[in-house]
Amino acid sequence: MPVQIQRLLGxxxxxxxLERMRRFYVERMGFAEVGRSGPELESSSGQTSLxxxxxxxxxxxxxxxxxxxxxxxxxxxxxxxxxxxxFEVADIRSAFVTLEQNGATxxxxxxxxxxxxGRLGCFSITTPFGDTTFRFMQHRGYRGLLPGMQTCDMPxxxxxxxxxxxxxxxxxxxxxxxxxxxxxxxxRPFWGVEFHTADKSHAGGSGLRSQVMWDAESGVKIAxxxxxxxxxxxxxxxxxxxxxxxxxxxxxxxxxxxIQHTVRELxxxxxxxxxxxxxxxxxxxxxxxxxGVERIDEDPSELEQLGILVDGxxxxxxxxQIFLKDAAAIFADxxxxxxxxxxxxxxxxxxxxxxxxxxxxxxxxGQKLARAG
Length: 373
Description:
By secondary structure, this protein is of the alpha+beta class.
């Protein structure tokens, strides 16, 4: 029996300053606050929590109230970051049996929670992504995202975001994670790339190898990165693992309906993206021709003004994406961690764009050098 994942619901983000993160998610990103922890849950868990919604994506943020609980233990070892990925499954008991038979390590048995509207079944497992766990859930009418959370009124305005396009993990070595995803979660290879900046004489250079795994039924995609030699320690993948104090989730990609509109709105609210690498837009027409992308609907000069990247895989198939600065840069606080968001609008291209993958790598590397200087 397959695991029967239906979708990637969202993530739990553990933070030290919940009010700072609430302002970021609501006032700057434009997410809606849709849930909060009540006194009973806070007393039992030792942490206070908020839930934010962007389209069909949910982010639960938790901060410790005492020297106990999941958030406290995570933050005692790491900067702020993504601690749990949340998956909706068709049948929670069947998913538990299948995953355990496949070699998963459950943290608990299936647990059931009730509210006035229905039941929630859930359980969590360990993963090869450092201290990140995966939680599997089945909502049978249950209104809240997480057990014990009080729901707020749902937003009436249409979100700029649609759903979670993919999630990316950085690892010092990724083969164990690939095998785990294949044999435990039953994911399959989807896309891969590797490159090294020594090809452009970047002072010795550094590089990465990436492999995207996916669940074909649900479309859930998990990208996995590892550093390449030479310059293994200089690779931004290795540096992320140092900053994060271990392997973990580097970024989450959110789908958007109109990326130009969304980026304008985010910039107006003070959200700054990572800059494109030098010369990116001068090289773009040649790059698109090489990819077989004959035309795009957008004005290239507007894309350059907004910092939006373009990639593709053939006639009529391209994508637009942009990467926001990481939390440490946004808040000028290393303790905020190296996690960041990507925004992506797909226009017929289901892939990941090797050119933009390289552009992201160069951009992050440039930001780290600027920060160090």
